[in-house]
């Protein structure tokens, strides 16, 4: 066993490769906090999380001022105890996005360290359910794109072996959303999956109408049709919607997910390790979902989530949105539409340390 002796905090800002717009926002920046932990045996683990352009400085201050100092001297293998202690220590700001994102960067670093010390890849150490999982792509389904671009991207993805595409919804009328989805469905045929994402854009009345209007396109799910804190609204919609309801990217606690599961308010759980506080709570949500017969299809973070989806039996999809290409060497292997869980020890991310050092924002680089 070994104690934590050194912590390095950095943040890099990554610009998305394509324009990303949905029904409520457009973002051009991805702040990426990085936590590197070294133990007394010299073993090193590195973790991360992300924002979509705001809050990165607050996350870094939460890490440097409050969380990281409490790691020094702790037994690195006691990942559950550390996560619990840090969450309790920050209970005045928990549950909240800034705290959960900061916790995620710490927790993923601890899991990376644990896996490296054990000589095992994350997907095996965390469960080992399967070596690969199917991918769907979101990168060509953004709301600003014209219909022909949606069709061309979906056809290209299908030709490459992807099993589905996500199309953003939230146009001014249901008819326009339906027209866009209909064009994609006509092009790709009945076996290819089409996911939709409203990004919390609708009121309850509009969500009901939109779900019914889009039923003819045989959708894999309708994602975040309502504000994320409207659990009862999602429960009402789930009872009448012809397609599954997917929720999770904007939930920051296992207790939030427990509320959704208890009320039957979602049937596809999109728990995001970068937003719920790391791998430790992610696994709790995944196992809770399995106990209730629910699928897990996590939001974003494909480089990390590929391993987690493969770790659990009810992990069904990896969302293809390249996120870390600029700061990694070997990228996630995707073949014939399947993401293959990395077999190298650790969380499976081949960090390019030279590029990270070049891009690190000096103001937020801290050594403890």
From TrEMBL:
This is Mandelate racemase/muconate lactonizing enzyme family protein. The keyword Magnesium applies. SUPFAM superfamilies: Enolase C-terminal domain-like, Enolase N-terminal domain-like. The keyword Magnesium applies. SMART domains: MR_MLE (SM00922). It comes from Psychromarinibacter halotolerans. Gene3D superfamilies: Enolase-like C-terminal domain, Enolase-like, N-terminal domain. Keywords: Magnesium, Metal-binding. Residues 147-244 form the Mandelate racemase/muconate lactonizing enzyme C-terminal domain. Its cofactor is Mg(2+). PANTHER family: ENOLASE SUPERFAMILY, MANDELATE RACEMASE, MITOCHONDRIAL ENOLASE SUPERFAMILY MEMBER 1. It holds the Pfam family MR_MLE_C.
């Amino acid at each position: 066993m070994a104690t934590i002796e050194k912590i390095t905090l950095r943040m890099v800002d990554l610009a998305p490769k394509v324009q990303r717009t949905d029904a409520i926002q457009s973002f051009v920046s991805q702040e990426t906090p990085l936590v590197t932990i070294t133990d007394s045996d010299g073993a090193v683990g590195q973790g991360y999380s992300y924002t979509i352009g705001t809050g990165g400085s607050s996350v870094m201050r939460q890490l440097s001022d409050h969380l990281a100092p409490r790691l020094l001297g702790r037994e690195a293998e006691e990942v559950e105890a550390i996560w619990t202690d840090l969450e309790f220590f920050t209970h005045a700001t928990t549950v909240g996005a800034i705290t959960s994102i900061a916790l995620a960067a710490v927790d993923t670093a601890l899991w990376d360290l644990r896996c490296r010390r054990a000589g095992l890849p994350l997907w095996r150490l965390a469960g080992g359910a399967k070596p690969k999982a199917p991918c769907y792509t979101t990168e060509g389904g953004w709301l600003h794109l014209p219909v022909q671009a949606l069709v061309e991207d979906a056809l290209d993805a299908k030709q490459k072996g992807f099993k589905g595409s996500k199309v953003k919804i939230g146009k001014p009328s249901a008819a326009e959303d339906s027209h866009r989805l209909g064009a994609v469905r006509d092009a790709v045929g009945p076996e290819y999956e089409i996911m939709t994402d409203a990004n919390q854009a609708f009121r309850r009345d509009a969500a009901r109408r939109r779900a019914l209007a889009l039923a003819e396109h045989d959708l894999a799910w309708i994602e975040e049709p309502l504000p994320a804190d409207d659990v009862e609204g999602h429960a009402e919609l789930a009872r009448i919607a012809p397609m599954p309801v997917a929720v999770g990217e904007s939930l920051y606690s296992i207790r939030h997910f427990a509320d959704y599961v208890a009320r039957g308010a979602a049937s596809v759980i999109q728990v995001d390790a970068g937003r719920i506080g790391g791998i430790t709570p992610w696994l709790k949500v995944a196992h809770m979902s399995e106990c209730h017969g629910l699928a897990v299809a996590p939001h974003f973070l494909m480089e990390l989530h590929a391993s987690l989806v493969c770790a659990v039996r009810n992990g069904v999809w990896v969302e293809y949105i390249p996120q870390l290409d600029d700061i990694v060497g070997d990228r996630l292997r995707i073949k014939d539409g399947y993401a293959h869980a990395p077999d190298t020890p650790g969380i499976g991310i081949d960090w390019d340390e030279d590029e990270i050092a070049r891009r690190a924002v000096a103001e937020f680089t801290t050594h403890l």
